[in-house]
Design a protein that fits this description.
The chain is α+β, with helices and mostly antiparallel strands and 678 residues long. The chain has helices spanning 2-22, 49-63, 97-115, 159-178, 212-223, 226-230, 289-337, 341-347, 389-400, 432-436, 447-467, 497-500, 522-527, 532-548, 564-573, 591-604, 615-623; strands at residues 35-38, 71-76, 85-91, 122-125, 129-134, 148-151, 186-193, 199-206, 236-239, 243-248, 356-360, 363-369, 375-381, 410-416, 419-425, 482-484, 490-492, 515-516, 671-672. A 5-stranded antiparallel β-sheet has the order 1-4-5-3-2. Helix 4 runs antiparallel to helix 5 and helix 14 (532-548) packs antiparallel against helix 16. The longest helix has 49 residues, at 289-337. The protein is globular and about 75 Å long. The N and C termini lie far apart (93 Å).
């Protein structure tokens, strides 16, 4: 009896341990959770050349799904260019080649039979792989649309802290995946402790054909959608054609990718001791079922206690290490960002007028060259911030930590005596207004470039409002504050000026108005009330300017006597939105994208701030072709055309504001620094 009890204890312990360890591994079952996007505008017929080529392509993808990279792309050659097919698959980077091939095989079959029959352009996602094909090449190109996202239905117990951990973890994985060699797996995974018991499992991945820059941009774009799709949820997925992100509170990937998981072999039968005889089912020496249950429960409790102690100790140790590292980084950050006045003076040739790039509401900007040859933009702030040296220094260090591809990067500062100077990265292509309003440069700004600029500006503002360490309301968003790099990517400038100048940004209102007439929301211009919706209003004006190709203030003195918003609203209500499009773009543009941008722009400039969409929604509306949008209402500051006097008008007065405090709008482009005396 004792001998058999010992044998069964050993067996039960083995079984429980295997079961416990299997919690940290995912099974390699059939592909799950298929989701498809099919282009209904491009179809083919059965037995056509395209159909034959598609079958050949899917066969090639399936047969190559065993390659180590988990990614393969190919095309079919055809004398008829309309019959060429381009296709690729991407398997989750932790999977074995066998599981990858199973997923791709299933995807190839279900794409043509179940999800997208006779559709030329198809995108199909499973948990384990992605399959994509179409009639246009997409190889080595970063695509963020069409996109999809999913959320875990369960809420996190501490949503704010969980959201912060998710943001920090997935953002930290981006450079790991992006900096992988081209052709290798651009993959990064991480397990983080949340509360000592619950864990966070995160994975980011790009298609290996992307460059490091494109992978970084793709993943950061996906991260920006997490607050909208999955706020406070225990898990979420954002899927782009070129990259994807997923996080869960359970291990959805194989934790040990160095040793690909395999199906464990069946357990051997219990060893037979010398002289013993096999027991039958009815043997009265068999251990009763309640003893087995007691043993299993005891072992499970013991393992749980050991696990809790281990994870809690590891979490505390990691927290202490991070705290020590952060202290050192803060000290080093100040020293590495600080420049002497002599260095800046030499870099700008003593602030020579020949190096002057422009002048804004916060000071003058000069081009400079540092001793190492790096070109920079130097902003010499006007002497009105009211800050001391240490206060200014601490504020700049905070703002300098905001890193986003659509924000101009702050490289350093100088604070000596009354001089307060900011050093920015130098952006080659000047500001957006240089291309948008200069008739000689408008032809260089085609529609794809404008649409990319609109998307980039929206993502940059979303970062400032929701995803950055500091919640910043820009308050002076306009074309001259959007710079363009060598690839015409937009970079928002002056995003930290209001904070650095210590303007009151915590009370929801101010008597010091910073902004530019024509871009300012009515509640801000007239009452000093500002919020994230103030920036949304400015973005709406800017979007309409980019589509129409004219400055907002150009309309005030036009023959029709209407402003840009009224002009856009009249065409929208008249069913003629495409007539708003810049004449330089009439030969090549995307009809749906133009109409969507005008629609979004008008939603942003509605008079009621609560009816303006949030930045998360704006980014989604720009990237999704299927998202429904509400109808816009008449914009603020509506001004009827002289040629159409029957249209109702809207004035700028307000019943809850004294007449002496009302504001008459001016066409002056200068930035406002003081509206009311202090």
């Amino acid at each position: 009896m004792i001998t058999m009890l010992s044998i069964n204890l050993n067996l039960l312990t083995t079984l429980v341990l295997i079961g416990f360890l299997s919690l940290s591994r995912t099974s390699e079952a059939a592909p799950a959770n298929g989701y498809s996007i099919c282009d209904n505008t491009t179809t083919f017929t059965q037995n056509s050349t395209y159909h034959s080529n598609l079958n050949l392509l899917l066969s090639s993808l399936t047969s190559n799904a065993t390659i180590d990279a988990g990614y393969y792309y190919t095309t079919t050659s055809s004398q008829d260019s309309n019959s060429a097919v381009y296709g690729a698959f991407l398997c989750r980077g932790d999977l074995t080649s066998g599981t990858c091939q199973d997923c791709v095989t299933t995807a190839a079959r279900e794409a043509v039979q179940k999800y997208c029959p006779f559709r030329k352009v198809t995108l199909l996602w499973y948990d384990e792989c992605m399959l994509r094909y179409g009639n246009v090449s997409f190889f080595r190109k970063m695509n963020e649309s069409p996109s999809a996202y999913f959320q875990n239905p369960n809420n996190a117990t501490e949503p704010n802290r969980f959201n912060q951990l998710v943001a920090e973890t997935v953002t930290g994985l981006v450079p790991v995946a992006a900096n992988a060699q081209t052709g290798a797996k651009k993959l990064a995974m991480k397990q983080e402790n949340f509360d000592g018991v619950e864990q966070l499992y995160s994975l980011v991945q790009c298609t290996p054909d992307l460059s490091s820059t494109d992978c970084d941009q793709c993943l950061r774009g996906a991260i920006e959608l997490i607050p909208e799709c999955c706020d406070g949820r225990k898990g979420g997925r954002v899927l782009f054609p070129s990259c994807n992100i997923r996080y869960e509170s359970f291990p959805f990937y194989n934790l040990d990718t160095s040793t690909p998981p395999t199906t464990p072999p069946p357990l051997p039968p219990p060893p037979q001791l010398p002289g013993s005889v096999p027991r039958s089912q009815g043997n009265d020496e068999q251990i009763s079922s309640w003893i087995i249950v007691a043993i299993v429960v005891s072992i499970a409790i013991l393992l749980s206690l050991v696990g809790c102690i281990f994870f809690r100790r590891r979490a505390m140790k990691k927290y202490n290490v991070i705290q020590e590292q952060n202290v050192g980084k803060e000290i080093n950050a100040v020293e590495s960002l600080q420049f002497s006045f002599g260095t800046i003076e030499a870099a700008t040739n003593k602030f020579s007028v020949h190096n002057k790039l422009g002048k804004g509401g916060f000071g003058e900007v000069y081009k400079g060259t540092l001793p190492d040859g790096q070109q920079v933009a130097v902003k010499r702030l006007s002497r009105g911030s009211g800050q001391g040296g240490e206060e200014f220094k601490n504020e700049v260090v905070l703002v300098a930590k905001l890193q986003h591809r659509n924000l101009v990067r702050i490289l350093g500062f100088c604070s000596e005596g009354a001089e307060k100077i900011l050093i920015y990265e130098f952006v080659q292509n000047k500001s957006l207004d240089h291309f948008l309003y200069d008739s000689g440069n408008q032809v260089n700004l085609d529609w794809p470039s404008r649409y990319k600029i609109i998307n980039g500006i929206a993502r940059g503002i979303l970062y400032l409002h929701h995803d950055s360490r500091l919640k910043i309301i820009h308050r002076d968003l306009k074309a001259s504050n959007v710079l363009l790099d060598g690839e015409m990517n937009p970079k928002i400038a002056d995003f930290g000026m209001a904070r650095i100048f210590r303007v009151d940004q915590t009370q929801g209102n101010t008597r010091r108005i910073v902004g530019t007439y024509g871009y300012m929301a009515p509640e801000y211009a007239m009452h000093g009330q500002f919020s994230v919706k103030s920036d949304v209003y400015s973005l709406g004006v800017l979007i309409l300017e980019i589509v129409i190709g004219k400055k907002n203030t150009n309309f005030y003195n036009s023959d029709n006597g209407e402003d840009l918003l009224s002009h856009a609203w009249r065409h929208w209500r008249g069913g003629m939105p495409l007539e708003l499009l810049d004449v330089n773009l009439r030969d090549s543009y995307s009809r749906s994208e133009v109409i969507r941008c005008i629609h979004i722009g008008l939603l942003c400039v509605q008079e009621d701030p609560d009816k303006r969409p949030k930045m998360q929604k704006i980014v989604l509306m720009l990237s999704s072709y299927s998202l429904s949008m509400p109808s816009p209402e008449r914009p603020a500051f509506f001004m009827p055309s002289r040629t159409d006097p029957n249209m109702p008008s809207m004035t700028c007065s307000s019943s809850d504001q004294p007449a002496s405090n009302s504001l008459s709008l001016s066409v002056n482009e200068a930035s406002i620094t003081e509206l009311y005396p202090r």
